[in-house]
Amino acid sequence: MLWLFGASRAGAQAADSSYVRCEIGGSSDVTNERFYEDTFDDTTFTGRRLSSSPEYRTAGVASVDAAGAFLRGARFRLNQSATAGDRVLRSYTRLELRGEPRDGLRLTLVPELDMRRDRSFGDDRSELRFKPDGRVRLTSLDRANVWDLLLGGDWFRTSGSSQLVTLDRNAGRAWLRWSRVPLESEWESELAYGADVRAFPDSTNRDHVEQHGAMTVRRLLPGGGTAAIDAQLDRRTTLDETPSTRDHFWSGRADGIAFVPMHEKLTAELWLSLDGYRYDAADTSVYFDYTQVTARPAFRWALAHDWGLRAGPRFEWMFAPEVPAERYRQVSAVIEAERMHRGSWWSLAPAAGWRQYDRSSSTLSLAEPDLHSSYLFIEGELLADLAIPGRARLRLSGTARYENHEDPSQDASSLYFSVDLRRGF
């Protein structure tokens, strides 16, 4: 997350100059899942067999990133990317227009257009999405208070022989946010309220309004540390009476982060998160109430040769009052190593742990099988963005996971790996 923050700041600074950057190249990826399934000869059960579903994709890729100024100091930034392959065809366009008519007032318009056809895993689906956003930002004379008004829309259409779940939609949204960042103060705070209205042409039962309340508080700690709490509460209700509870619920999420420097090259970190759902009429199959809690204490070391290392345990709890089979406790050990050096970035994150599911009285008495069985897991993630000779960049992305269950029939593994090579112009 730290490198993303740094990259976003660098990108914001780069937007103040005029430039055109082009990249062209190719990408390839492979996805595979291994699992057990029942096999039959006509209607006779012949046992369980380990199966897999590998998928290979290749494509040509190209992108253009440009920024510059036009009338009366206004600026623009354009990003256009395209993918053409044996499984996926995609064009993505994002245009940002920004102007400051007077000191303390900023106007921004950001339309996005995303067109895609995806034939992966035997599917055949086409999607078209247009998402325009407009923002007005007003800053007080002392720069301590900032007000943001966001107005936007979302027009989405999908088609294809395999399209069964995602519905066409027309949506509009509005957000009002107030930020207070006084100079020489140890505190920063934000409050926001927003609402989304979504209409589905093919299913009026899904038409709904979703309201949001958000709050962020940050504080500088003694010794150069920082702490922050970011919380959001959402309420969704349908516009018409419907028999289903899926769009009648409260949901929320809260994240807490603290960084405390222990030494010049050692920092103690604590990451906490809480999220959950509460339905107006919960059931015990699909739309059930739950709360998920995650805690991750860690230490981060700054090592030689631009390497950084973060390590610590991760604890996770799932609480589902009415569905014992979904409750679990999980503990794991996580290590993250990353390096930023001479325009290249590496990140490697292996992890291993145990997830323990609760068992109901019926499963303990063997009256019915377990919906989930406890398991040991090992997983890893690799990300890299490398500068190579000839103004080219090589981007790698890979994840792998293996699960060893108490019930061997639920053992599973998965693999995803992607290679993207492009040359800049």
Overview of this structure, please?
This protein is mainly beta and 425 residues long. The chain contains two helices and 21 strands. The protein has a 20-stranded antiparallel β-barrel. The longest helix has 13 residues, at 2-14. The chain is globular and about 70 Å long. The two termini are 29 Å apart. Residues 1-15 and 42-47 have low confidence and may be disordered.
What descriptive keywords fit this protein?
mainly beta; 20-stranded antiparallel β-barrel; disordered N terminus; 425 residues; 69% strand; globular
- The poorly predicted ranges are 1-15, 42-47
Query: How confident overall, as mean pLDDT?
Result: 88
Characterize the biggest β-sheet.
20 strands, antiparallel, barrel
Count of DSSP-assigned helices: 2
How far do the termini sit from each other? 29 Å
Q: What general outline do the C-alpha atoms trace?
A: globular
Rg value: 25 Å
How much beta, percentage-wise? Answer: over 45%
Topology pattern, helix = H, strand = E: HEEEEEEEEEEEEEEEEEEHEEE
Structural class: mainly beta
Estimated helix fraction: under 10%
**Total count of strands:** 21
